[in-house]
Structure prediction request, 422 residues.
Amino acid sequence: MTRYDDDTERTFAALPPAHGRGFAQTWWGLAWLKALEDAALDASQVKTGRRLARAGAVGAVSVRPGRITAVVQDRDCTAHRADVLLERLSDAQWDRFVDLAIERSGHVAALLDREMPPHLVEDAATAGIDLLPGLGDLEPECDCGAWDHCGHTAALCYQVARLLDQDPFVLLLMRGRAESAVLDALQSHGGAPGEEGARRPDGVDAAEAYAAGHVLPPLPALPGLREGPGAPPSLDTETAVPPDVDPAALGFLAARAAAEAHRLLAEALRSGHGRQAVPTDPDAARDAVRLAAGDPDPDVLRRLGDGSGRTEESLAVAVSAWRLGGEAALSVLEEEWTVDGDTLARARAALESAWDEDERPSLRARGNRWTVVGAPHQLRLDHEGRWWPYREERGRWVPAGGAARDPATALASAALAAGDEP
Prediction:
C-alpha cells in the first residue's frame, strides 16, 4: 500500500518478512544492492542488515529526492532511524534524460510497464547521468552513531531493493523527480502522448532489416578461456534448509556443473570443433559416474551409487574407467558388442601384425573382448577401433590403462598394471 504525501515524497508501508527469497530479482534491483555490498567496509554489518530486513524489522520507508528513511528495529527491539542519501540530478541532467528516453522507441513503454530499460541507463551513463548508484554513492546516516554503513542502513537498502523491483520510478524519485513529473516531461517532449500510444512503439519493416544485414558490424572476438571454472553461487541463505534438500549434494552438483561448463567451453573453442559430431547426452546412470569422478563426499557418493544401481565396488570401477577415457571408456567397460564385417577383419589384422609369430599371445575372443589364455589380461575393442587394456582382479575385469591404436601396446599396459612382465 503506497501513500502519496505530496508530489515529491512517497511512503511505503512496511513489507512482510522475506523468508526464503532474494531481495532483488530485476537487474536494476541487483545493481542497487551491489552498490551497497561493494562499498560497505564491514561485510558483517551488511550481513546483519540482510538478516534484519529478512526478518521484517524495517518499518515504513519514506522516499524523497536525495534521501530514503525508515525506522529499523534491532534484535533487542531498540529502534533506530536510518537514512541513506543519494545525489540528486540537476535540471539539465533531467532534460537530457528525457531526450534520451524518447530517442529510442520502447523506452517510454518500458517505463510505463514498470521496467527499467538497460539501454536507457547505458545511454544516460554515457551522457554523464548516473541513474543507478555506483561505489560510494549510497551515503549512510544512522542515529546509532556508525560512521559507515551499519546493520540499520544496510537493512534499509535491502528493503528498498524490493521496492525498486516493483517500481523503477522509486529510483527516479530518489534522483529528484516524481513519476508524474517524469511523465509530464515525456509528454511535453512528444514521447508519451498516452499510455496506449507508448505501448505500441514503431517497428522496423522486416524486409528492410534483412536487406541491411550486410552493413552490420562483425561479431566480437571470442572471449578468452579462464584457467578453471568459476566458483558456483553461495548456498548461504541464512534460512532453514527444507527437509528434502541436501546442501552438501546441491553444492557438489553446482560445482560439477561449473566444471562441466568450463570443459565444454574449452572444447568449443578448440580448432576444428565445428567439424566434430555432436555427442549424445549420457543417461542418468552414466552421468552419475561422471559426477562420482568429481570426488564427492561419502554420502553423496553413496547416493550416486544407489541412484545408478551400482554397488560401491562397481561404482569405483566405473569411476576408474571414466577417468581414463570418459564415456567411451565407460561404454567399453559396461557394453559387450559383436564385432563383424570389416571391423572384425581390421581387428584380426591388427592382432596378427602386432607381434612376431613366435611372440603372439594366445587370445580367446568373445564379442569385442580378447582374453589372453592363461593370463589375467584382456583387450577390449571400442567402436572407434581403439584397444583398451584390462586385467582381472578378484574375479572381475577392471580397466588397466588408456586406449591405444596398437593392441600390443595396450596389452603391455595391462601387464605392467598387473606387475607382470610385458
Notes: The radius of gyration is 33 Å. The longest strand covers residues 67-73. The CA atoms of residues 187 and 279 lie 56 Å apart.
